[in-house]
Amino acid sequence: MRPWIVWTTGLLAYIVAVLDRTTLGVSGLAAADRFSTGPGLLSTFVVLQVVVYAGAQIPAGVLLDRFGSKALIAAGGVLMASGQLVLAFTESLPTAIAARAVVGLGDAVTFISVLRLVPHWFAMRQVPLVTQLTGICGQLGQVLSAVPFLAVLTAMGWTVAYVSVAALGVLSIVLTLAVVKNTPDGTTTTREPTSVRDTLSSVKTVWLRPGTRLGFFTHMGTQFSVTVFALMWGVPYLTVAQGLSAGVAGALLTMSVAAAISSGVLVGVFTGRHPHRRSRLVLAIIASNALAWSVVLALPGPAPLWLLVVLVVVISVGGPGSMVGFDFARTFNPSTTLGTAQGMVNMGGFLASLLLMQAMGVILEATGGLSFDSFRIAWTLQYVVWSVAVVGILVTRRKARRLLRLQDDRSLLEGIEK
Fold this sequence. Notes:
The protein is mostly helical. The protein folds into 2 domains: 1-181, Up-down Bundle (Growth Hormone, Chain: A), CATH 1.20.1250; 206-418, Growth Hormone, Chain: A (Up-down Bundle), CATH 1.20.1250.20. It has helices at 2-26, 28-34, 39-55, 57-67, 69-89, 93-121, 127-138, 140-156, 158-179, 196-208, 210-241, 246-273, 278-298, 305-316, 318-332, 338-366, 372-379, 382-417. Keywords: Cell membrane, Membrane, Transmembrane, Transmembrane helix.
């Protein structure tokens, strides 16, 4: 029972992180009014969030390996609660942007810190499923921002709503300090001081392990499409290019969360039972994403609603698919550097998402703004990312398999000598 209590406490911290991540998205109109700015400048918040999140992954991973999950989860909670508290009271746009960056920094360390708890507290056969459950249940934070947070914002105003979120963060910090333990015996971290050169050497060693890079390209190829769709270009595409109402577009995004939750359980069970077929599953998810988009983009006009439903469901499986990347990191890295490896894996999808969001913006502006034809061209940039990811997966998978064979041969030789 203790493992589930520790994991649930860490999960609560991640749910709060997702809540903090998505509050500004649901309060966009209120933010525009409060900071006297237009939607163009407000989109800076989204880009900034992804930049900070992706850029902080490797430093967060290094700190995680040194100080452990408990310290990083608590520190992330302090950063996010502080940032939300500043947002609650400031009316200055530069201050709000800085506060949002602090929230993004706290968000960046939380997810991989919770993930690192899993292999230490659960049996290996349970790890893939619990890893998936972490990602799935964390999305409850998005529900919290869309329902109770938005209700408080509407009824009681900006300050009360953001103070309430900060207070929930403080509760999560207290529970983390009281309940979370890095491992059952409490020994996982390496607090010995290391030089910058040693740290960089360790980071390089982790990256050069083929399993780490296999996880990186797995995360890249599966996650970026649904992330870009949900965070920035999905609603404009559905409403402007496909002619749907805002209500229907919102329903499709809600369906996306439901599809991710249901498929996540299946992916977790499959990877737990068939660990040697994980890469095949990942390639199948990437292929299904590319196929669904190809069918929609090949149409000369707006797609029928049923096809858009299929598209949203298919790309939503990419979220659970990206979690397989963390399983690769766990398989091919020792526990002493697992945090660094998970940080590197987590960079893959967010780095691809950031580049695609920016590139699509450039294409849309160059081709005449938000229109059916402009979006049709912009979405084709996805094929570049898929191509890079698939090549990366195939190359690193071959190297990872070769490494496993060498390790098996070495173990067999040592057994014979004994």
